[in-house]
Design a protein that fits this description.
Structural class: mainly alpha
Number of helices: 3
Low-confidence stretches: none
Radius of gyration: 23 Å
Distance between the termini: 56 Å
Order of helices and strands: HHH
Largest sheet: none
Helix content: over 70%
Number of domains: 2
Shape: rod-shaped
Mean pLDDT: 95
């Protein structure tokens, strides 16, 4: 699955890359070059960030489910036969 942004977000991200390169590295690139760089970053680095986000979400969900399971056990009443 490819990471995609709507046109407004894509343009804003490409502009941010161009500004960063100019401010930090004194490299000026045009709109098309910044779009190509954004595509490269999205395709190469994006999946790593996405997967880490999923990993973090999975760990958080697991912790919440454990807390919920503990709370449910605490609600149990002693049963007499």
């Amino acid at each position: 699955m490819r990471i995609e942004f709507d046109k407004t977000a894509r343009n804003a991200l490409a502009r941010a890359l161009a500004v960063y390169l100019k401010d930090e590295l004194e490299i000026e690139i045009g709109g098309m070059d910044s779009m190509l760089l954004l595509d490269f970053i999205s395709e190469t680095l994006g999946p790593h960030y996405y997967n880490q986000g999923l990993h973090d979400a999975r760990a958080l969900l697991h912790a919440k489910v454990e807390t919920l399971a503990d709370a449910l056990y605490e609600l149990e009443k002693p049963a007499k036969l």
